[in-house]
């Protein structure tokens, strides 16, 4: 007697949710669909991974409207129309803001969303997004805030004071007072307690003049686009290396809502086939101390979506964290990705087992306080190996303590001023 498939919806999406499904992907998806799919679960996965435009296009092109029930196709078409309407509104706002930044002479780079849709997917409508992510140099933050306020934006009602985020975070969240459109003003790709040394001035030096949504804009170089997408994937899934050891990795990634980020990396690799400067990308990954993160993302895109990764590159980028504590923290997050019936009810020190990964992930804190020797050598080039280690550990602990105190003060000020 055969064992029932526990997650046919996940396997169906893993086969079809890609820009160019192969013949064997279409055949596999058709076989899964004929066995029956839970329409509600399928729609939930589509929504959480923002796959409606891409999936609906592939279903129609592959003739699946004769395989799936009409009500399922209708529900997916509804999601498609919702994404089209939201995308049109956000594209119009993107154009308006980029034109204003250009006229004001404030340099910004649009991250993800429409920038990835146009440059990587070749069609902005296939890459849904819910907000505008703007990268700038920290020195340009005052001018960007002033421009956004003039454009009708302001801090979120739930936000702390701007100063707290500017001291301790990676972005500010501003919301349009009329339309509710959200714009995140980034000066970093992740929070300060990560052992990364990303050179943002270099990113802007390598950026190219182009257009997005028909407006003049700076765009990331192909190498920086790929690196930024790799970092974004690992930011969401720091347990990626461990997750890839599981036979159900694709289904768990879909359950977590990360498939769109894997797809971004895979399509950036496909788009850059034969044109990406791999030597330059690898050099930046090493100098910025992001080799392990890029390695995990490239492995994921290659393993799950057969993305073209040059032979030997993954191995050259470094090794994943192998310490016992790091592996244990990664397993905690894997537990958070498990199906509901497999999740443990036990709490860790009174907290949920996945609390270790928000707002500042314990795994990141561990790697930041005790990073590899290469990071320390780049950050403290004039100190000896032992002095570097203890100087960084003492300084890191002091920084984290000060950050916690800053958070408590900011929360208190918000409470007392309302």
| Discrete helix count | 20
Uncertain stretches = 341-360
Total strand segments: 7
Compressed to H and E, one letter per element, the order equals: HHHHHEHEHEHEEHEEHHHHHHHHHHH
Radius of gyration: 22 Å
Task: Label this structure with key terms.
single chain; 418 residues; alpha+beta; two-stranded antiparallel sheet; 7 strands
How would you portray this structure in words?
- This protein has 20 helices and 7 strands.
- With about 425 residues, the chain is an alpha+beta fold.
Overview in brief:
With 418 residues, the chain is an alpha+beta fold. It contains 20 helices and 7 strands.
Draw up the topology in text.
Blueprint: H1 8-16, H2 23-34, H3 39-49, H4 52-61, H5 70-104, E1 109-111, H6 113-121, E2 132-135, H7 141-150, E3 153-155, H8 162-168, E4 171-176, E5 182-186, H9 200-206, E6 208-212, E7 215-219, H10 222-236, H11 240-243, H12 249-256, H13 259-271, H14 278-287, H15 291-305, H16 313-316, H17 324-336, H18 362-369, H19 373-379, H20 385-417
